[in-house]
Write a structure and sequence with these properties.
It comes from Streptomyces gilvifuscus. The structure is a single chain. By secondary structure, the chain is an alpha+beta fold. The chain has 2 domains: 2-48; 50-144, Glutaredoxin (3-Layer(aba) Sandwich), CATH 3.40.30.10. Helix content is 57%, strand content 11%. The chain has 6 helices and 4 strands, in the order αααβαβαββα. The protein has a 4-stranded mixed beta sheet. Strand 1, helix 4 (78-87) and strand 2 form a beta-alpha-beta unit. Helix 4 (78-87) packs across helix 6 (134-144).
C-alpha cells in the first residue's frame, strides 16, 4: 500500500523543498507556482483521481450483471491517467481493478498481455483490449447500458 503513495509523496516533498528555497531567495510568486505544479503532479499520480477499485472477482461479477467494461489499472501509469481523465464522469460507471492491490487482477492482465502487466487493460464481454482509445471505451460503455 505504501508503494502506491510513494510517488505522490515524493512530488509533494520535492516541490515543498524547492518552493521553500525559492521563497527564501525572495521569489514567493515563483515558489507558489512551482508548488502548485508539484501538487498537481502528486494528485495525478495518486489513486485519488480514480473511482474506488474493487477486486477482480467482484468486478467480473458486476460486469456480467450489467455488461459494463472492467478496467485494470495501477497508480502512476500515465496511460491510465489519460484514460481516466478523458472519460470524465463516465469513468465512475466502469469497474476499476487496481492490479497493485489485487493479485488476481494482475494475473488477468498478464494472461491478456503475454506475461506483461500492461495497463490499462479493458475487458469488454470477456475480451481484453490493451490501452484502448478512450473514445472507444466511451462507446463500449454507452452500448452496455
Amino acid at each position: 500500500m505504501t508503494r502506491v503513495w510513494l510517488p505522490p509523496l515524493l512530488f509533494v516533498l520535492c516541490g515543498s523543498a524547492l518552493a521553500t528555497e525559492l521563497a527564501l531567495d525572495g521569489s514567493p510568486v515563483e515558489a507558489t507556482a512551482l508548488l502548485l505544479v508539484f501538487l498537481a503532479l502528486a494528485a495525478v499520480n495518486s489513486p485519488l483521481i480514480f473511482p474506488r477499485s474493487v477486486d477482480n472477482q467482484e468486478a467480473q461479477r458486476r460486469s456480467a450483471a450489467d455488461g459494463r467494461p472492467v478496467v485494470y489499472w495501477r497508480p502512476g501509469c500515465a496511460y491510465c491517467v489519460r484514460l481516466r481523465l478523458r472519460l470524465g464522469r463516465r469513468a465512475r460507471r466502469l469497474h476499476w481493478v487496481d492490479i497493485r492491490r489485487d493479485p488476481a487482477g494482475a494475473a488477468v492482465v498478464r494472461a491478456a498481455n503475454g506475461g506483461d502487466e500492461t495497463v490499462p487493460t479493458v475487458v469488454v464481454a470477456g475480451r481484453p483490449h490493451t490501452n484502448p482509445d478512450p473514445e472507444w471505451v466511451r462507446r463500449q460503455l454507452s452500448s452496455a447500458t
